[in-house]
Design brief:
By secondary structure, the protein is of the alpha+beta class. It contains 14 helices and seven strands. The chain starts with a helix and ends in a 19-residue tail after the last strand.
Length: about 400
């Protein structure tokens, strides 16, 4: 960068400030979104990345600090910090990270190479390739670690493919527009295909990536609101509304796989509240819900549909299999002796099981399972009731009192 290059930049001050201004605006927006819900610290990394990139671009354009060599190293450090912060932020959103040691090591290595090819072996060509290939490589490695996003929701897929495109353009743009040499004069460099493509790609791809991250953050907030709306605050499982919504989606799976409904209820729950207090009853409910979730597969659905009543949808399980799962829940729950300040209590639960039939409304199947739960209560509680051949006594044996 020489004086002629600086004069060209100053000649169009407004245009020169538009690009860093865009990323400064993104930084403020990310901070605003983080301020709404401070439980997303990854947004701070992305805000820092946008701000650092805006400062680096401004410093590069206006030669701060003064002098070609100091400016090359200083702006290079800022660009590196921006890319590292952006990658760390996107990884943190997915509960991953590169880590402080990795980031510090990469910053030191990049800075060392920039210093080497600025002061000891001056080479603009080498600095350009180090930065562009280095940033592209880091972004591509981050994309690989976030590859699960390609199978996520719309916001996740948009972020993944935008990040992948942003990563690849560093290699293609640099190789196709720079080649093996750089223009020697400032005027020639500013007029080169590399410089023009650099300005365009960073503006278009950089803004697209920032916008994709913003969409992903808004999608996360919407998902959290939906989860809060559809979840029972005490136990953490779905509430009735969440069950209805998830059940509609599950029915599409049930057209191929069997689906069974289990309705269960904690026995004599009112006496627990009356004897040990409502906090004890809450502990029992939370423990029961956790037990139910531990006994099912990730694709299954567990919901609290009443005070002490829960409904479970077992995907891919016929009634015989569902009865086995329900009995496992029953046995394990009975083994959980609850110790309260007023004493110890063994708590049991009753279960009704029905296999859902295609063409039958799911509400009808749930009603039938609820009727079988009622039979379980009538017949002494602490048992699983399915069809006649699937009834289980409280001892855990097959019920021989009912004809098969």
């Amino acid at each position: 960068m020489d004086k002629v290059y600086a004069q060209l930049i100053y000649a169009d001050l407004t245009r020169a400030l538009v690009r860093p201004g865009i990323f400064l605006l993104f930084s403020l927006v990310f901070l605003w979104v983080w301020n709404i819900e401070k439980k997303r610290p990854w947004l701070l990394h992305v805000a820092l990345a946008s701000l650092t990139f805006a400062i680096a671009w401004t410093a590069h354009l206006f030669t701060w600090p003064d002098g070609i060599r100091p400016n090359a190293v200083f702006s290079g450090i800022l660009y590196t910090l921006a890319v590292l912060a952006a990658c760390e932020g996107m990884l943190l959103r997915a509960d991953k990270r590169w880590g402080l040691l990795f980031n510090c090591a990469l910053l030191v290595i990049t800075t060392g190479l920039l210093w080497l090819f600025t002061y000891l072996v001056p080479s603009l060509w080498a600095r350009i390739y180090i930065q562009n290939f280095g940033y592209g490589g880091l972004l591509l490695a981050t994309t690989f670690r976030l590859r699960a996003l390609s199978n996520g929701n719309g916001a996740d897929r948009l972020l993944f493919w935008t990040l992948l495109g942003f990563s690849i353009q560093f290699f293609l743009r640099t190789s196709l527009t720079l080649g093996f040499s750089t223009p020697e004069s400032g005027i020639a460099f500013v007029a080169s295909a590399f410089w023009g493509s650099l300005q365009l790609s960073l503006t278009v791809f950089g803004s697209s990536l920032a916008f994709s991250i913003l969409i992903a953050a808004i999608a996360d907030m919407h998902e959290d609101l939906r989860h809060e709306r559809d979840s029972d605050p005490l136990t953490g499982v779905l509430n009735r509304r969440g069950l209805d919504e998830q059940a509609r989606r599950t029915l599409r799976v049930a057209r191929v796989n069997p689906l069974s409904v289990v309705v269960c209820d904690i026995d004599h729950f009112k006496s627990i509240n009356d004897t040990f207090g409502h906090s004890a009853g809450d502990d029992v409910l939370r423990s029961f819900a956790a037990l139910l979730k531990s006994c099912v597969q990730p694709e299954d659905i567990v919901a609290r549909t009443g005070g002490e009543e829960f409904t479970i949808l077992l995907v891919g399980a016929d009634e015989a299999r569902a009865v086995v799962v329900a009995n496992r829940m029953r046995v394990r729950f009975k083994a959980m002796a609850f110790r309260f300040q007023a004493g110890t209590r063994i708590v049991t639960a009753s279960f009704g099981v029905v296999e859902h039939q295609l063409g039958t409304p799911l509400t009808a199947t749930m009603k039938k399972a609820d009727d079988r739960l009622y039979l379980s209560k009538q017949n002494g509680r602490n048992r699983v009731v399915g069809s006649n051949e699937n009834d289980i006594r409280s001892s855990g044996e097959w019920n021989q009192s009912t004809p098969r």
